[in-house]
Amino acid sequence: MSSSEQSIKDYLPILSMGGLILIVQVLALFLSTPMEVNEMQAFEDPTQVSNSIYYLVLILVFTLFVLMALKKNMKWVISISIYLAIISTLYYVFFALFTLIPFLSGFEIIASTVLSTGITVLLYKYPEWYVVDIVGVCIAAGVSALIGISLSVIPVIILLLLLAIYDAISVYKTKHMIAMAEGIMDLKLPILFVIPKHSNYSFLQESFKPGEQREAFFMGLGDAVMPTLLVVSANVFMESNGISYPVLGAIIGTLAGHAVLSVLVMKGKPQAGLPFLNSGVILGFFAGFLLSGASIM
After folding, report:
1. For FRET with 250, which of 34, 105, 113, 202 sits at 20 to 30 Å CA-CA?
2. Pick the residue with more confidence: 189 or 86?
3. Which residues of 31-40 are buried (b: 16+ CB within 10 A; e: fewer)?
4. So where are the chain's domains?
């Protein structure tokens, strides 16, 4: 194999992760319209900055809950909590999609319940990497759309800045985020994306024993969800005629942040993703904002 072919092969997983982020953002944009029409917003006033603090507190409380469960060796509690979150998120995703299908009118609740339950059972019984990734895309897009339509641009930007700082502290300083990720990896839950390094890889056979070389790249769903919040919020709360430059800028900025992050990850050291991804999406958004001449609502 030539050096150029080897180089392409080495960077293919990184390109694949960028592709997954892009898919999540496009799907979230699509889902945001039916979710907004069906009034799935979490807050009556999406402009309140206090809403951002509310989400940050929820994340901190959940992190504490997971760390305590790991310390007490109660991973089953984590599994139950996450599976409940999965089935509820999938329900909202499918309900929003089914409202767009005329012949399912009046049966959205039943169809959404059956499909979300079936997929969750499949995930529990057969968590192979491609099943985890497909479900992960649906969950990431669904969460991004739900929160994105619930927070206007300013609260989202504040939330992203706070989360970037928190992620940096939790990875580089306290390192509890790394410990948490390593502690729940073996549960094989769709809270991450799995990109195999070779074609015969099986997530089911991954042992996650300390010190063993990983046969796949992993990226937390949060790295796709958080920047997508601004993409969705800009699309929902900013008026545009034709192409929305703030939305387009946010998408390009996310991918640029991912590219910078990937270069550092390829060197072999764990990196906090949100400082790169969130700064990328924010800078991209403002670049598009300046080009558009729009106003932030």
Report:
1. 34
2. 86
3. bbebbbeeeb
4. 3-225
